[in-house]
Amino acid sequence: MKGVSTGTTRAARGAWAALSGLVAGYAALAVAELVAVGARPSAGPVTAVGGAVIDRTPSDVKDWAIRTFGTDDKLVLQLGVLAVLALCAAGLGILAQRARRVAAAGVALIGALGAAAALSRPDAAGPLDALPALAGAVAGATVLYVLAGKLHSPVIAEAGATTTGGLPRRGFVLAGAGVAVAATGVGAAARALRANASATAQTARARVRLPVPASPAPPLARAVDLRIAGVAPFTTPNRDFYRVDTALRVPQVDPGGWRLRLHGKGVGSPRTLTFQELLDRPLIERDITMTCVSNEVGGPYVGSARWLGVPLANLLDEAGVRPPSRGGPADQLVARSVDGMTLGTPVETVMDGRDAMLAVGMNGEPLPFEHGFPVRMLVPGLYGYVSACKWIEDIELTTFAAYDPYWVQRDWAREAPIKTQSRIDTPKPFARPASGRVTVAGVAWAQHRGIERVEVRVDEGPWRRADLAPEGSPDTWRQWRWDWAATSGSHTLQVRATDGTGTPQAGERTRTIPDGASGWHSVVVNVT
Q: Model's pTM, two decimal places?
């Protein structure tokens, strides 16, 4: 019984020691987040470490995370970072039973790693970015050192001063509870200050009044949307538009202080533009479908919206920029975001007459924060990772030979025109429709080339031509439908499209890396 009692006591003491580490870690994070509000919110340790993890994660793993978790991938990553930090904190608390100074040094080391992560981020603003993690480390190391001392100080035989069975002394309980309460207050203050800054940006966005476009979007035929249940609507509501980016904390940019810098090779007159100066320029309004390069065959990362923005080619032309075909020295336009993201776009493509723009509006309202408010770039016909910089603040003209932007450094293709794709939206995989007439329908896209034909086949039989909805424009997707005389049993449906140049969609399946997936989408159904 004595051995069991001793073992139980040790386990209990170990649990309380681990708890002291968790309390110290909680205090460290709370202090770090409060300091980050004053320094720079994205320099907070969870955001900085999470961003550093994204930067160093292989492209295949990133692609898997997007496929598996969708828009929750960032939440999963943040929870993972917190889980690892919690395990480290608990371990250091246990270590502090025997070596308080070593454990406190371990907390300092974790803080140093957080500081290094903040300084390594593309948007790092300077040495101050290290301050949140370092301040948190000092707070955490101090708390751990003190709590470990109170937990394991010599037992004094006074009434109420000690307990038995591995329970902690009263001083430890009071100190730990006090630290937890104080840390909660610090964390609440940090959240309140962030909320206040966010509210300021949200109020500024609410006050934006978008001008009437000088060139409105051409009217759409009513039938562009077939209104078939299960088929994606022609215009994607803002709340449903896909979001794929690396920002763990969505930038909340106040348009009053926002500036766009235009400079680089071949820019005869570098300039800096305010948000209001962009709004004062002649704006164009266009329906454009966007696609993410991480979209698998049949995937959801595609959507169409009505965009309002400044023609990018006009802005470049006014600055003296010429495309390479006209003797310009720059063949790459590098767009930089406020969060440090870099995207590279062919200058020739931007200036070839398509409706490339600096978008300020989406479906009749200012851009949502998640989609780049106050300004984002958009180039029809190119995957987003080379054309659709959100929260843009800098445009530099350079060459592909001189600079590799973020995704190119991670093995994605340098130039990325969108591939012709089609998707079956209804019936869904493993649906059980009744035999007889079954509507097979979906969408197809080949931005800037348009869709000429869509065909469907059953069980690898002959291809049957589907009915197409009217075209919105060559830059938008196109809905289609085919009425199938379904017979009972299991069947495989496949779809393929032909673009406006007469080129059919590739049938061979390829992965998304390095320049987008290809292959025919298929759906298995069981007809009853």
A: 0.85
The answer to whether the CB of 494 falls within 8 A of the CB of 526 is: no
Residues in the chain, overall count? 528
Residue 365's nearest CA partner among 377, 356, 373, 354 is 373
Residue 468 phi, psi dihedral angles, 5° rounding: -105, 140
Residue with tokens 């995989």: 429
For residues 169 and 313, what is the distance between their CA atoms, to the nearest angstrom?
72
For the record, the structure tokens of 99 come out as 């070596």
User: Tens digits of per-residue pLDDT, 403-452?
Assistant: 999 999 988 999 999 999 999 999 999 999 999 999 999 999 999 999 99
- CB-count exposure of residue 237 (10 Å: 0-12, 13-18, 19+): exposed
Render 357-419 in DSSP notation, one character per residue.
Answer: EEEEEETTEEPPGGGTTT-EEE-TTB-GGGT--TTEEEEEEE-TTT---TTGGGT--SS-BPP
How many whole angstroms separate alpha carbon 247 and alpha carbon 149? 41
Kindly report each contact of residues 271-276 with a partner whose C-beta sits within 8 Å and lies 24 or more positions away, as own/partner.
271/319, 275/360, 275/374, 275/375
Residue with tokens 């009692």: 5
Going by their DSSP bridges, the two strands 521-527 and 271-274 should be labelled as unpaired
166 touches 6 (CB < 8 A): no
Structure tokens at 278: 């962009």
